[in-house]
Write a structure and sequence with these properties.
Length: 360
């Protein structure tokens, strides 16, 4: 993590006074002070808006079969894993239908296999010219009818299994419960709402962009989202969706920024700063670690060939985790000390030496 050094007003007065003594021995410092050169670089020109976080997946789970609620497993605010059972319905009728369908499948399977064997037997006899073609055809028709009945029974068994599974209402995705619509003991029917919830895995940001800025943002299709962890996330291309109409009240367009799955610490309703690229600009940057802050004073140590000076500057925004923009006070090519604590220690030791020499 980059350090920002802060000092008292008394300390700053000392530093300004001490800097007047540095010129004579700047060369000694040059070999020990870590420095970086102020550089002119091109960075994105952006507009910052506050976006609202919302869930991509949200909805209401409804009943898909009839039954009485015998147990609910979650309440409002609970986290639910995908496929977890949320509601258990009484399944007496569905289980009976399933068992009956299963028994019918077994009976028709036996009938089909018997008809298949009979067809094979008659086919062998027919090859020996011992039965007529009509007998063979009749046996084939019986085999096919038995097979059709068997297949229909299997389809009914499958439907009965689905109805039985519907008595256990499962979460369609992992998320959080927003509302519970039913109580234990209630009778539900298909289409009746049971739970309303939303997924926390896939999130997106909705930002309102003024009409005058929307064309430039559409051109570049790039956004930077500042997460709660202070980490910046770059989003571009088809991850940005532009609504095709403006709000007639405030003349703003909605821009939707889809975020990668599984970002921790994001919840619907949160506000996040979202920067959209509208062009590029040239700016002067220095390492963030070189900055010294105290109240309204922002400064750096500037190293030249024969002098180390304490200089006040005006800074802009952070370019990334390690660089910060300088608006005034520095020029391209000037060297700043990246570890001000070392400069302070050297200055203090030198000031002590000067004070000692003045007493002799």
């Amino acid at each position: 993590m980059n350090k920002i050094y802060r000092f008292s007003i008394k300390g700053l007065i000392f530093l300004f006074l001490a800097s007047s003594h540095i010129g004579a021995f700047g060369g000694a410092f040059a070999a020990t002070l870590p420095v970086k050169t102020a550089e002119q670089i091109t960075i994105p020109d952006t507009l910052i808006f506050t976006g609202t976080v919302e869930a991509v997946n949200s909805g209401t789970a409804s009943a898909q079969t009839n039954g009485r609620v015998i147990k609910t497993y979650f309440d409002v605010g609970d986290l639910v894993q995908k496929d977890a059972v949320m509601v258990q319905l009484r399944d007496t009728q569905q289980k009976a239908n399933y068992e009956a369908a299963q028994a019918n499948v077994e009976a028709l399977a036996a009938k089909y296999h018997s008809a298949e064997k009979e067809y094979i037997r008659i086919s062998d006899i027919y090859k020996k010219r011992l039965v007529s073609k009509s007998v063979l055809d009749n046996t084939l028709a019986q085999r096919d009818a038995a097979k059709a009945s068997f297949e229909a029974a299997k389809a009914k068994l499958k439907a009965a299994k689905v109805q039985l599974d519907y008595t256990k209402v499962r979460a369609p995705y992992s998320g959080i419960v927003l509302k519970r619509h039913i109580e234990v003991g209630e009778t539900v029917h298909p289409g009746m709402p049971l739970y309303t919830g939303m997924s926390l895995e896939y999130m997106r940001i909705i930002a309102d962009v003024p009409q005058k800025d929307i064309d430039a943002i559409r051109q570049f299709k790039q956004a930077i989202v500042e997460l709660p962890s202070a980490k910046q996330l770059s989003i571009e291309g088809d991850k940005l969706t532009f609504f095709g109409y403006a709000d007639p009240v405030n003349a703003t367009f909605k821009v939707r920024v889809n975020l990668p799955a599984g970002i921790k610490g994001l919840y619907p309703g949160m506000y996040l700063k979202t920067s959209f690229k509208i062009g590029e600009r040239s700016t002067l940057v220095i390492p963030t670690s070189s900055i010294i802050h105290r109240g309204d004073v922002t400064a750096v140590y500037v190293q030249t060939a024969d002098k180390l000076s304490f200089r006040q500057i005006v800074i802009g925004s952070e370019v990334d985790d390690s660089l910060i923009e300088v608006l005034s006070g520095l020029k391209v090519g000037e060297s700043v000390v990246t570890e001000p604590s070392i400069a302070i220690e050297l200055m203090q030791s030198q000031e002590t030496r000067i004070a000692g020499e003045s007493h002799e």
